[in-house]
Amino acid sequence: MKKVASPLCSECRMVEDVYHIMLECVRNEDIRSQIVRKIEDFMNTGTCNRILAYPLSEEAKEVYKMVGIALSPRNVIYN
Ligand SMILES: [Zn+2]
Asked: Its domain of life (predicted)?
C-alpha cells in the first residue's frame, strides 16, 4: 500500500479501512455483489474468519482481487 493524503474514502467520506473497503464502500458494490454470488454467506463473520484462516483459498483470492481494485484509484497522492 502507498501513502495517501487523507484517511477518508474519496467517494463516501468515511474512514477507508479494510471494513469499509470490503463491506461498505459504494465503489466496490459491483465486485462485492459478484463475490456474494460466489460465496453466499460472505457477510457472515465465520466466513470472513475462514477466508482469513486460509489465505490461499479461492475465496481469499477473490477478496484480494476486490481490495486490489478498491485501492487502485488511491495510488495517486492528491495535494
Ligand atoms: Zn467508500
From this structure: Eukaryota
